[in-house]
User: Fold these one by one.
Assistant:
Number 1:
Amino acid sequence: MTIHYERQGDIAVLKADNPPVNALGQTVRQGLVDGVARANEDGAKAIVIYGEGRTWFAGADIREFGKTPLEPYLPDVCNIVEASAVPVIAAMHGTALGGGLEVALGCHYRVAVPTAKMGLPEVHLGLIPGAGATQRLPRLIGHAAAIDMMTSGRPIGADKALTLGIIDKIETGDPLEIGLAYAQELIGQNAQVRPVSALPVPDAIDFDAARDAVRKKSRGQISPVVAVDAVEAATRMDFSEGLAEERRLFMELMKTDQRQGMIHAFFGERQVSKLPELQGVAPRDVAEIGVIGGGTMGAGIATAALLSGLHVVLIEMTAEAAEAAKGRIAGNLSGALKRGKIEQDKHDHILNDALTCATDYVALSNADLIIEAVFENMDVKKEVFGKLDTVAKAGAILASNTSYLNVDEIAASTSRPADVIGLHFFSPAHVMKLLEVVVGKETAPDVVATGFALGKRLGKISVRSGVCDGFIGNRILNTYRSCADHLILDGASPYQIDKVMEGFGFAMGPFAVSDLAGLDIGWANRKRLAPTRDARERVPTYADKLCEDGHFGQKTGRGYYVYDGRAKSPNPDVMPLIQAERAELGLTDKGYSDDQILRRYMAAMVNEAAKILGEGIARRPLDVDMVLLFGYGFPRYNGGPLKWADLQGLPALLEDIRSFAQEDAYFWQPAPLLEQLVAEGRNFEDLNKEAAA
Ligand code: 3HC
Ligand code: NAI
């Protein structure tokens, strides 16, 4: 029983009890239908619906999506609630989301606690509201406000809901009590049913303009635009026809790859930090963090830790550098203040009481976890870890933020390799969601658990990675960047590649990203890797030449693009450098189409990801997907590279890789795991399922 029926005097109470979030699964839907029928039969004068536990209904049960729908369907449930002859009151707390809000819109009266949130987040699942909200909400709050809620997916607070007219009142207290009190009041007034569907439809707005605005923001995602279509239907059709149109559009979206990609992202995001080996392993206590190096990354990491309420001791090389680091942190914090993320009090407390900047490592003696973010150089890192070994207290965790270097080698420079771990943040570290938790061969399980606990505290999506050059993300990045370089040698331009990948849904193409990160970073990395390169590797030199000319991207105003404020245009120096290199190597333009570029780029990404999985660096395909989604701007609606690969079909992808290998057998070596999956007729999702079993 997920809906409990109870009489409290004249009032029938329907209590939802389907933890953790009262999702509207089949038994809940049936319970609502039965409860409303029973209340209408047994003489109740009002019906109160409320949720047990932490929330009102947080939406349809997403686990049912993609399976055969089970009766009663949610739109019918909302209609049945609305058709009740006895007034129905929604008493909301927690998060009334998606189908949850739609049930509330089916009710005749709505009351909520001040902390309740309401929203229509279906677009984040590649869908639109499918249980009447596209028809009822515009009748209640107007087209523009309804479109905003549906296309942004952003929840609103109770105050705003009251102002908009979604709820009738806000009351403090237990949801059952406020529901009962409101019901009594309504009975006293002899209040009648008040179906939202009977309200007139407001005058039409300029729906084409609304669609254009939404299309611009959605970067290739379909569902926000379809949401506008559904709302527009309300102006052309009567309520029941509008509902049928909503259902048709909803079911069409249900069939799309984007829906599958986004639901994969939803569950992947929640699954990724659940590691079987950490079940029952208690993390170590962390109250004070040490950060070594207050440059770009150290300042960002310190900011993230401070914002989460931790004390931070930051070590720099000189007093001036320590002061500069403090300035960077203060800049980050004033940004947080401006955006309303913190109050002035907290801001002042953090800067005055929670942060210590110093130059002597002795200041780290009380730190529970110390993160090194100094220059990317093994000798420097070893020296730092050697010093840490002498000052850090017993049991302190020693972490490196290295982007590429071998965490095991760093650990070996200490007398306590079990306490050493990689915590790889992304820039800007107080903003970017991804944290790679790099587990060395000697890292102790409770150190790993502490890495994940810290990630959670800092609001990060933490992903476990083994040790290899670049870990999961940067290793894959290096491979698809190499592929882009090869495409360029063979005829593509950086601008064509950026356009194709932006068309795929990346916010920025790879060359614009390189400009943003700084071309010197890639340059330094190429120099580092040069001695270990295989003679068969194709490494272009045009990028080095750009750097030799002092063009490091956005920070110098010139890279692949020339920057003028926020505007960018192709740098006219780039193509001549590329053409000169092609001529020198005797290469001809292969005239790649956009589709050929996309196929090669994505094949390179998926193939490297499959190698990383096969080697056990990533444990599950979803781990790779979450790294690319949260650290590299991979479009969420494509689910991540391995989800995308599944949706394309692995045999065709492997066939592509084999055909590319005829031109460059060294670069295009198929991943053994990919070959195995194709031979066995399985895919990456099968591996995710096996890992979850
Ligand atoms: N269906 C099924 N399971 C759900 C769910 C849902 N709608 N919402 C959350 N869950 C599960 C999560 O997967 C998680 O499971 P796990 O413990 O096994 O990992 C558990 O509930 C707890 O969720 P969170 O960890 O996310 O808990 P939080 O407290 O951080 O957040 C929440 C709670 C804000 C409700 C968040 O879970 C959320 O945003 N859920 C999705 C809400 C949503 O998208 N609703 C719309 C669904 S589509 C719809 O309604 C279609 C309709 O128009 C027809
Ligand atoms: P940075 O050059 O901005 O900052 C490094 C800081 O470390 C400098 O302020 C320097 O004074 C300080 N420093 C150097 N040696 C020190 C020592 N012995 N003791 C105390 N302080 C010392 O470099 P950035 O970009 O912050 O990178 C730091 C680390 O983070 C590197 O390992 C890098 O690979 C990694 N990283 C960088 C990312 C980026 O996008 N910049 C992303 C993720 C990781």
Number 2:
Amino acid sequence: EKKYDEGLAKSRQTFGDKLNSLLANFRTVDEDFFDDLEETLIESDVGFETAVKISDELRQEVKLKNAKTKQAVSEVIIQKLIELYEQEGADEDAKLHFATDGPTVFLFVGVNGVGKTTTIGKLAYQLKKTGKRVLLAAGDTFRAGAIEQLAEWGRRVEVPVVQKPARSDPASVVYDAVKRAKTEKFDVLLVDTAGRLQNKVNLMKELEKISRVITREIPTAPQEVLLALDATTGQNALTQAKQFKDVTPVSGIVLTKLDGTAKGGIVLAIRNELHLPVKLVGLGEQLDDLQNFDPEKFVAGLFG
Ligand code: GDP
């Protein structure tokens, strides 16, 4: 897959190439081999715990399959990585959930600069291409710039944006948007929010209020609370995720800027340490550079 191939070029140069060179120098599966493997995984930001878990599982698997040749060992590694990247609770979990009837609402959370607005723009574009009617809500009323930025995406992708002046109550923007989505029969409402982790209590209250307003109008919504994380921030992204999990029921992760990092291993850390499914990945700045997360394509992209 071209997008994954291009988007993971940087990760491939470190993670993939290191694994490949580890295998190229392969003589025998001994403890040194597993030590080197562990080190490679840690350097690729899969996280210490995850790296140890992977090499332990690989050790057993290699023994079980009696893999002795380079080819056999490399097959075990690739297969194991795909398995690890597959979401817990299988495929169902990794997909975005849409309402069967009435508007679907996705709430986007995440700190400034992680790529939240860009993701909303890209997703609006993609949903629109599949024939869905999309509405955006500028729920980050804290910064005038954020409202204008979402409005700009709305113009670019040609979908309407519900907005109010800066400093308006975000819940009132969302209320108007949900009402409009219902009366005008939009299929999907994408809600931007302010992710000010500086004040966790306020953030929690704000997100709770927004969710309440949505649920009162549409009992099954929001169908997703998507947390955007910047892959280039490595382990910091994990810390952010833990903090957001404390303030709101996150249903999935959007991992942005994977094209800008050599540490594609972060996906594994998110899966194994946070138990949250990665639902979407940002692989570049173009409109179609947002992809559903696909473990097989991802691992293929890593190994090139
Ligand atoms: P927000 O503050 O969270 O809404 O972040 P923005 O959507 O404004 O994005 C911040 C910057 O990251 C912008 O320059 C985007 O073009 C860039 N960006 C977002 N997603 C991606 C991605 O997947 N790949 C790359 N390379 N850049 C991205």
